[in-house]
Structure formats: structure tokens, C-alpha cells
Design goal:
This protein is an alpha/beta fold. The chain has two domains: 72 residues, DNA polymerase, domain 1 (Orthogonal Bundle), CATH 1.10.150.530; 295 residues, TIM Barrel (Alpha-Beta Barrel), CATH 3.20.20.70. It is built from twelve helices and 13 strands. The strands form three sheets. Strands 3-4-5-6-9-10-11-12-13 form a nine-stranded mixed sheet, covered by helices on one side. A two-stranded parallel sheet has the order 1-2. A two-stranded antiparallel ribbon has the order 7-8. A hairpin with a 2-residue loop joins strand 4 and strand 5. The radius of gyration is 22 Å and the shape is elongated. The C terminus is likely disordered.
């Protein structure tokens, strides 16, 4: 290693795509393509299957090579700024990717096969949906693919979820339902899905990875073609007038355009149904007439409808529909033949529930809010 090499800080490989890792090793050690792929495969399995954070743990790599790897590369996680655990077992993490770049992710036990991790794709959001806390935070920037994967690695560390093929796995599903609009960061989201689903690493099935969008219609087909991820749609209204208010991107891509894109989503079938998310807002979108219109709109689309009781946050302009009203709405949808589970609110006490995420650089910490409430 030359003096010039030492002036450059080590490159973080945690979260790096396989091809990028191969190229980085080839460049650092002047390896031919075959040797670079072989070395990358070794390191890949240690990082993504075993959860290694130190090159010294990589016992099938020679001691001298491990020392050189340590000089040129690092295996770093995002900084865990805050970790909160709800009374229901939900865990919320505030992670710092870089100075001023913070995002939240949430692990929800007993969801999917075992437990689901809700990851963020952006810091902040541009969509300004008024029922969503994240929507009140201006977009800072897209998260890189490595920063998205870093959320998964950090939470697997916390859950002691290594190696990735361990029995009694707690993390079985990934949902892109955290901060930001994933389809406005599709390149990085697609790369992150490649890493997370690689069978020699974290090894989560693409059928257990769901991407939620507010309706960025031009990117939906590409999402399906490039990732084979399951699709979720933040619908929340049955008329353009109301959806224009609740989900302002609807002014650009109407409900009709959105549902047409759903009908043509690659791979959609009764075995790969689209999930439609519908937040229940008291006196806004929760009537029997709207339930019947929802059924009419979704006719012919293999679909499941998640009814989401509105989760309050400080200053929120809406209230949650009464429980009897939510059940009546669900009954109409169920009678029409659609699975319509009412999502049980999880992590409300730590502002970890759907629609409550917002990075701490522009929010009061949940602990401060609780202290004020007790004054």
C-alpha cells in the first residue's frame, strides 16, 4: 500500500451490491475477474449471511489478506441514535447514515411469517399527504442502496438474527413503508432488494418483500419487472376530489390511471395479490357508500384491502374512525369477496405506527412528548 492509498479513508462494504464489491476488490488488489468474483463471494457470505463486522472473523481468508482488507475497507452499520421498544414489542430505530442524515425504521413482531421490518427509502418526503407525519418533513435526500440495506443489517444485529439461516427466524418480511416514496428512489430500492434477496446472504424471498407507493404510475411496471416485489398501494380515497386532498400526487396520476397500472402490474395474480392500504379517517372517507365504491373500483384486480386505523401524531388534522364504523366498512368489503383485515395499531406509544415516522432532526422525541403530556 502506498502513502497515497493511506490518505483515502476505508470504503464501507456493508450494504454494497455484489457487483460493486467485486469491482472494488478487483481495483484494490489488482485481481483478475475470476479471482475478484471468488474473493467477493467469500466476503459476501461473511457480511450478509454470518453478519460479520470485522475482517478478522473471516477465517477462510488468509491472515495477510485480512490485514490488507482492514486497511482498505470497513464493515460499518448506520449509527443507532435511538432505540425504543413499545409495550407491544414493536421496536423503532433512529439511524444516522451521515451527519444530518437520519431515518427511522420499525421492526414489528408477529407480522408475516414471523416479523416484518419497515424500512425507509428517503429522509423526509415530497408527497405532503396531510394524514402522514413523514409528509410534514421536507425531503432531505434519497437514501443510497447501502443505506437501505444498512437498516436491515442494523436491525438483524439488534435481533441477534445471525446467521441468516438460523432456526426460529424473527425477521421474515421487509416492507418499504417507512419514510419516503420508494418509487422516487427506484434505482436504489431495486439494488437494495437485490442484496436483501440474494440466496447466499440475507436471503429473504422477493415474495416477502413489499414496496408501497402512493401511485407513481410511470415507475410501477419497472418496479415489477426489475424486482418482482409485492406491490402495495396507498389508496385512502375512492374519488379523485378526495384523493387529491389526501394523496396530492393524485392530481398528477388519477385513480383511474393508478388502477390501470395495477391491472397491468407484472406478475399480478390471485397468488400475488396487490395490497390496497386505506387509512380510516373519521368523517372523511369512512362511509358505507365509500366502502361500496372501493369494491367497485377494485373489480377485476387480485387484491387485498388493509384498513388502517388512523394513528395520531402531535398536530395531526384528523381523527381515527370509530371502531364500529371501521368494522361496518370492513364488513361491506368482506361480503364482496375481498380479504379486508383491520390492521392492529402497533407501536403507537413510541410513534412507530403507520404514518407516524419522522426523523428527530425536525421532531420532538417521543420521550419528550410523553413528559409534556404528564405535566
Amino acid at each position: 500500500m502506498t502513502a497515497a492509498d493511506l490518505q483515502h479513508p476505508p470504503t464501507n462494504i456493508a450494504g454494497m451490491h455484489r457487483a460493486a464489491l467485486t469491482d472494488a476488490l478487483a481495483s484494490a488488489f489488482d485481481l483478475d475477474a475470476k479471482k475478484a468474483r471468488m474473493r467477493a463471494a467469500q466476503i459476501w457470505r461473511w457480511v450478509y449471511h454470518a453478519g460479520a463486522t470485522d475482517f478478522d472473523a473471516m477465517t477462510n481468508i488468509g491472515k495477510e489478506m485480512r490485514a490488507e482488507l482492514s486497511k482498505r475497507f470497513t464493515i460499518a452499520r448506520p449509527e443507532m441514535v435511538e432505540r425504543q421498544i413499545s409495550t407491544d414489542g414493536t421496536r423503532k430505530y433512529l439511524l444516522r447514515m451521515a451527519p444530518g442524515i437520519e431515518a427511522e425504521c420499525v421492526f414489528i413482531p408477529d407480522v408475516g411469517r414471523a416479523g416484518a421490518l419497515c424500512v425507509s427509502s428517503q429522509v423526509g418526503c415530497t408527497l405532503n399527504c396531510p394524514f402522514c407525519h413523514t409528509g410534514s418533513q421536507n425531503l432531505v435526500r434519497n437514501l443510497t442502496a447501502a443505506e437501505i440495506v444498512g437498516q436491515v443489517l442494523a436491525v438483524k444485529d439488534d435481533l441477534e438474527e445471525w446467521p441468516s439461516d438460523a432456526e426460529e427466524r424473527r425477521l421474515s418480511n421487509i416492507v418499504f413503508m417507512g419514510m419516503g416514496e420508494p418509487l422516487y428512489n427506484l434505482d436504489n430500492v431495486a439494488t437494495a432488494i437485490d442484496v436483501i434477496s440474494d440466496g447466499e446472504g440475507v436471503s429473504l424471498s422477493r415474495r416477502r418483500i413489499t414496496v408501497s407507493t402512493s401511485g407513481i404510475v410511470p415507475e410501477m411496471r419497472r418496479l415489477g419487472e426489475e424486482t418482482s416485489a409485492m406491490l402495495a398501494i396507498s389508496l385512502h380515497a375512492t374519488s379523485d376530489d378526495l384523493r387529491n386532498e389526501l394523496v396530492p400526487i393524485n392530481r398528477k396520476y388519477s385513480i383511474a390511471e393508478l388502477l390501470d397500472a395495477c391491472r397491468n402490474y407484472p406478475g399480478v395474480s390471485n397468488a400475488r395479490r396487490i395490497t390496497f392500504e386505506y387509512v380510516m379517517l373519521k368523517g372523511v372517507n369512512d362511509t358505507d357508500a365509500e366502502a361500496r365504491e372501493l369494491v367497485r373500483l377494485l373489480k377485476g384486480i387480485p387484491a387485498k384491502i388493509n384498513l388502517i386505523p388512523f394513528n395520531p401524531w402531535p398536530g395531526a388534522p384528523y381523527e381515527c374512525s370509530d371502531w364500529d364504523r371501521i368494522e361496518a366498512f370492513a364488513d361491506i368489503v368482506n361480503r364482496a369477496g375481498y380479504a379486508s383485515p383491520i390492521r392492529t395499531p402497533r407501536g403507537r406509544d413510541i410513534l412507530a405506527a403507520c404514518g407516524q415516522l419522522k426523523s428527530s432532526s425536525v421532531k420532538k422525541r417521543a420521550s419528550a412528548i410523553r413528559r409534556e403530556a404528564n405535566l
